[in-house]
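User: quick one
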Amino acid sequence: MPLLELVELDPDVPGRRTVPLSLAIEPGQCWGVLGPNGAGKTTLLHALAGLRRPASGEIRLRGEPLSRLSRRRIARGIGIVFQQHHDSFPATVRETALMGRHPHLRAWRSEGPEDRERAHRALRQTGLAALAGRPVATLSGGERQRLALATVLTQAPALYLLDEPTSHLDLRHAVVMLDRVREVLADGCHAAMMSLHDINLAARYCDHLLLLYADGSSAHGPATRMLREDRLEALYAHPLHAVETPAGRGFLPG
Amino acid sequence: MTRAIRILLALALLGALVLAWALLTGSAGLGWRAVVGTLAGHGTPLAREVVLGLRLPRASAAFATGGLLAVAGALMQVLLRNPLADPYVLGISGGAAVGALSAMMLGWAGSAASGSAFAGAMLSMVVVFGMARLRGEWSATRLLLTGVVVAAGWGAVISLLLALSPDSDLSGMLFWMMGDLGRARGGLPALLILLAAVAVCLPLGRHLNLLARGREQAAALGVNAGPLELGIYVLASLLTATAVTVAGTVGFVGLVVPHMLRLATGNDQRLLLPASALAGGTLLTAADTLARTVIAPEQLPVGVITALIGVPTFLYLLNRGS
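Assistant: Done. Structure below.
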């Protein structure tokens, strides 16, 4: 059974008509979402996380429509890393990672040693263990982004949705972050879908791609079939050159 | 969790000491033996009148009001995702003031005046909520702007009422607006409401922690944000309305107490809310005891004392943090 299934979905991108989208995310798959600014990448990911109601169509988590699941059930199946983070109140790095345990705990229960251990492990995986006691407000943009990944790793959902997870990261941390995601997927039970602006990172990490065009249409399929110059030029309305490198095929803007 | 319990025990002890001070202090010149004896049930009629008829009702009303305001302030700060929000920011106090001042103009007293203040607060709550929701989903920003505008509207009505009132009513009205526990008749109902509110909030503490991170982040981690926000709004409004009905609009407690505690102990609502109840009650009881003793037999408005205590403490904590 697919982990997540989109059936004739129109995610209701503001000011835009979208051609209904049907696709299935299977366990073990890593999906990339590519598209120009304003094509609806964020809107789609928020709809898939159940955070906004789609205009039409249905989203099914392991066969069950999201609209019939409680928020808590959804949060145990789907985790999302947002593009922007709001920190109105002071909090430490450790507390922020520990938030991920919320959907797994009953109302009266406090976080136990096992929950703390999970949060600590996630901080180690994202290279933040040394900063555990620091206030979030003192982190750099990239560290904050890694903390968001640590929180969702603590949450440990089946499906990871990541909205431009590498946007504030330097080259090394971008690679490390996506390596972490791939490690999680290695057991074949989890899946990920992430929006990216870097075609080359998408080529390196994603086995499936969804292209969202500015006119509301879309294309999707195995990455090898989507990563063609003509398709990508049409997607970004800009000429591209494909170059063969020792690390695989790369794309440069023309 | 042991740290949380230690902090709450320390605050409870401090609260008990301040309550004892409030019961022992006054112009009647009763020694502590007389006061304790009266509380135990055998005192002179005069001591009984002073301790059980005046000081105990007033101290308990002060404690309850302070606790209510601090808890309401902490909730409003989470609801608006703004550490500078206070219980009055959404206009509840303005509605209550219009209700109370109108009652005074009409010569009502007792429960008619209290009822009028409470009704004004509830009216304000419904108006702000209705306007903020008029076009679909509310947001923290829209709620805040609506509340601020409605509060400004109430402010204008209050000015009008003050301008139209006979001089003989004015000092009572001004005392009401600065907070006045002199006419409070016992704090038991308010204390019970405070206890019930803290009991309701405790199991929701972790949800509130997430909500403080923003509606979307909370929803993504399994919090049903919409109903929770509505619940907080109604609860904080009810607590504020109760406090204002008992004591008028005492300033500063609702802003400073949760903020001070947050700086000192962190932003975990499971600790912050009960700690706010205790610290708010303690602060207002202490302030009211000062208000009725420093220039006795004259009384100061208690709001002046809360500002005098609150502002320097707050500034100190802010600077210590950085």
